[in-house]
Specification:
The complex is a heterodimer of chains A (about 325) and B (about 200).
Chain A (H helix, E strand, L loop, with lengths): L15 E14 L3 E15 L4 E6 L5 H9 L7 E8 L2 E2 L2 H7 L4 E4 L12 H6 L8 H11 L16 H14 L4 E5 L7 H15 L4 E6 L2 H7 L2 E6 L2 E7 L13 H8 L34 H5 L5 E3 L2 E3 L5
Parallel strand pairs in A: 3-8, 3-9, 6-7, 7-8
Antiparallel strand pairs in A: 1-2, 1-4, 4-5, 9-10, 10-12, 11-12
Helix pairs in contact in A: 4-5, 5-6
Chain B lengths: L1 E8 L8 E8 L4 E5 L6 H8 L7 E6 L12 E4 L13 H8 L4 H6 L16 H12 L6 E5 L7 H17 L3 E5 L3 H7 L2 E4 H6 L2
Parallel strand pairs in B: 3-7, 3-8, 5-6, 6-7
Antiparallel strand pairs in B: 1-2, 1-4
Helix pairs in contact in B: 2-4
The chains are: A alpha/beta (about 325), B alpha/beta (about 200).
């Protein structure tokens, strides 16, 4: 198992480093009154080569926008702040343009991202730079992913959901990308296809690639990720190691992560009261304060900074 | 009692998708259904809730075949709430279409009053799914078919929504058919769990 703790990766250069990332969108209310909604706040994340880092968050928490920020495919009106580093170098808009689809690639959420009018083999070959070897490389990737050779002659509508997903993964596999962002690749899959998809993503990390695995499925995250970043209201509330998710969640650092763990049906299925904050809500203190079982008056007006605790990172005054 | 009598369905004339299925769901009963993708679970859900007609067989509630007019006592909730709601309506209008709701009821479902003035695109999947649930669980609803209802949602939102449904099972004597790939969920909430392949094939 490729297990890395926070301490022994210190001397290596991270593949991707995100620091204090914030993302805002202008919004017009009552005519021309302009205000901003903040969808990502002070987000931080580090991914080393060969590592799978899961970003776990609820729907509407801004997870997919995180992928778009790194790829540089945000809408024009988005305002982005903070630092993005790729292999230690500043990831500017221009650099993002050069790297995306090459050094950084995306496994999209929907299998509808495949071109319906192109045979799958052609689609996969189109991202291979070595023109002479592209047929061989594509065929090898299909074998590795358990796709029968005749799949290459089929169009996307002739494939089942699971096979279409494998074609998407093949596209990432044959590319020369060092960083792969997988955006919710598993929902709605039956158990067999779910396991298969995860195994395939895990395989991608073996050739020293870094993977950012965006999901709302904790089970999926725990199955393949080395580290788990818990995303809530646009912030990283905790970065935990896989092993921390066990028992009653005693080893987890943030009350939200604990609640998430305990809400699983195989744990006590206990819901948390209240709702995720609205994107236009102004949050002065801790973003989780309203729903937090251990919050105090202090949390209402003060914002916790992230701190290292027990080989992980968390943002809570009482961790 | 919801009774599925010997129903069969096919999309192609030469092949049954499923053949002669029988199933009974009682009030206050939660029945789980799982099985591989593409074997007809969603089609089955659509038939039970009246969106598709079976080629053979019938569905009865308390002994009666329900009419296509008016509110169906069997209501369906699917995986994608954004596809079930008119994108041009504000949420207030979405709710008003299906009836009047007390503040107390909406609070129980975790629907915030501020959401009423928003359009569906301004709410998250979990928030929208609560509106779908409110629309489905009117007082006249006797059975709920939940087809991957919480698949797209995080664990906390999933637990919130199911705890609400389970309390209605008690209070409104609702019967529920839960279709899901998530076995731990089925084990937690169901009185009995069926494999769709066995249900469709043991004839």
């Amino acid at each position: 198992m490729n297990k890395k703790s926070f301490s022994n990766t210190k001397n290596q250069i991270p593949l991707l480093e995100v620091k204090n990332l914030s993302l805002l969108f202008p919004q017009y209310k009552e005519g021309l009154k302009e205000s901003y909604i903040q969808v990502i706040r002070d987000f931080e994340l580090t991914i080393y080569p060969g590592e799978i880092v899961a970003v776990v968050g609820s729907s509407g928490s801004g997870k997919s926008l995180l992928a778009d920020s790194i790829l540089g495919i945000l809408p024009d009106n988005a305002e982005i702040m903070g630092r993005l580093l790729f292999n230690g170098e500043h990831l500017s808009t221009k650099r993002q343009q050069q790297l995306r689809g090459k050094s950084i690639s995306l496994i999209p959420q929907s299998v509808k991202a495949l071109d319906p009018l192109m045979k799958t083999s052609k689609q996969v070959q189109s991202v291979i730079p070595d023109k002479k070897a592209k047929k061989r490389i594509q065929e090898e990737a299909f074998i590795k992913l358990g796709l029968p050779p005749e799949t290459g002659d089929k169009y996307p509508h002739e494939l089942s959901g699971g096979m279409a997903r494998r074609v998407l993964i093949a596209t990432a596999m044959v590319s020369e990308s060092e960083l792969i962002i997988a955006d919710e690749p598993t929902p709605g899959l039956d158990e067999l296809t779910w396991e298969e998809t995860l195994t395939n993503i895990k395989q991608l990390s073996k050739s020293n690639r870094g993977i950012m695995f965006i999901t709302h499925d904790i089970h999926a995250a725990l199955k393949i990720a080395d580290k788990i970043a818990v995303f809530y209201a646009g912030e990283t509330l905790e970065i935990a190691n896989k092993e921390d998710f066990s028992g009653k969640g005693e080893r987890l650092r943030h009350p939200y992560t604990k609640a998430l763990w305990l809400a699983l049906p195989e744990n006590n299925f206990k819901p948390l009261k209240g709702n995720h904050p609205e994107s236009d809500e102004v949050l002065i203190g801790c973003v989780f304060e309203k729903r937090c079982p251990i919050a105090t008056e202090f949390c209402k007006t003060n914002k916790p900074k992230s701190a290292k605790i027990n080989n992980g990172i968390t943002r809570c005054f009482y961790a | 009692m919801l009774k599925v009598n010997n129903i069969s369905f096919r999309y192609q004339s030469d092949r049954w998708l499923f053949h002669q299925i029988d199933l009974i769901i009682n009030p206050k009963e939660v029945v789980g259904l799982y099985g591989q993708s593409g074997i007809g679970k969603t089609t089955f859900a659509n038939i039970i809730s009246g969106y598709l007609k079976p080629d053979k067989g019938s569905i009865t509630v308390d002994g009666k075949v329900y009419s296509q007019n008016g509110r169906n006592p069997v209501q369906l909730i699917g995986q994608h709430p954004e596809k079930a709601i008119n994108p041009r309506w504000k949420m207030r209008q979405v709710l008003e279409e299906s009836g009047e709701y007390s503040d107390e009821f909406l609070e129980k479902l975790g629907i915030s009053k501020e959401w009423m003035h928003r359009y569906p695109s301004q709410l998250s999947g979990g928030e929208l799914q609560r509106f779908c649930l409110a629309r489905a669980i009117a007082p006249k609803t006797k059975y709920l078919v939940a087809d991957e209802m919480t698949t797209m949602l995080d664990a906390i939102t999933q637990a919130q929504i199911w705890q609400t449904v389970l309390s209605l099972v008690e209070k409104q004597e609702l019967g529920v058919l839960v279709i899901s790939h998530e076995l731990p969920l089925l084990k937690k909430i169901c009185n009995r769990i069926l494999n769709f392949e066995e249900l469709a094939g043991n004839k």
